[in-house]
Amino acid sequence: MLSDKMLAALNDQLNAEYYSSYLYLAMSGHCEAAGFLGMAHWLRKQSEEELGHAMKFYRFILDRGGRIELKGIEAPPGHWKSPLALFEDVVSHERKITDRIWKLVELSGAEKDPATRVFLHWFVEEQVEEEAQASTIVQKLRLIGDSVNGLLLIDRELGARS
Ligand code: OFO
Predict the structure, then answer these.
(1) CA torsion, points 20, 21, 23, 28, in degrees to nearest 10?
(2) CA atoms of 102 and 2, how far apart (whole Å)
(3) 54 pocket-lining for ligand 1 (C-beta < 6 Å)
(4) Cβ-contact 21, 68 below 8 angstroms
(5) What whole-number distance in Å separates Cα of residue 12 and Cα of residue 57?
(6) Tens-place pLDDT, residues 109-148
């Protein structure tokens, strides 16, 4: 059985994963409207992945006998001044999520809940990968600067995400 504190924190994380999905969908729409179809594709895939993360929390809460508490999803921003600014926001968002996951791990220790701790391991690893992927894109965008050719090349590369 989940403690009340653990359950509330897991339901909060469920909401945070939905917000991540919403944020990346907003970013995808912004990129598509700006003509960066590859970036839009990459971000839509990311948005779908985040829904998968949300459902992992949903499943786990129910499997542990907890109640799902869905809350309103905050509205994400809708405009970014450049692809670089947008992907910098991806990195900083993922860092915030990493921080949240690590705090959940700490709480699972404090609440003496090894099942939640083990469940969270997948997310600890996933965050390392997500931060690394987004940081690589930011690095490339910084190198590219204002080069239109460079932007079109990276757009094509991101459009190949399966
Ligand atoms: Fe981006 O990993 Fe979930 O939120």
Answers:
(1) 140
(2) 18
(3) no
(4) no
(5) 10
(6) 999 999 999 999 999 999 999 999 999 999 999 999 999 9
Query: d(Cα 158, Cα 137) in Å, to the nearest integer?
Result: 9
20 lines ligand 1 (CB under 6 A): yes
Residues in the chain: 162
Query: Alpha-carbon distance 47 to 29, whole Å?
Result: 11
Q: Give 32-85 pLDDT, tens digit per residue.
A: 999 999 999 999 999 999 999 999 999 999 999 999 999 999 999 999 999 999
Closest Cα to atom 1 of ligand 1 = 94
Cα 157 from Cα 162, distance rounded (Å): 11
Distance CA 3, CA 84 (A): 42
Which residue CA neighbors atom 4 of ligand 1 most closely? 17
Residue 75 tokens read as 């509205």
Q: Whose structure tokens read 């786990």?
A: 60
C-beta neighbour count of 41 within 10 angstroms: 18
Give residues with Cβ within 8 angstroms of 27, minimum separation 6.
Answer: 43, 76, 80, 86, 89, 90
Q: Cβ atoms within 10 A of the Cβ of 149, count?
A: 8
Q: What is the pTM of this model?
A: 0.96
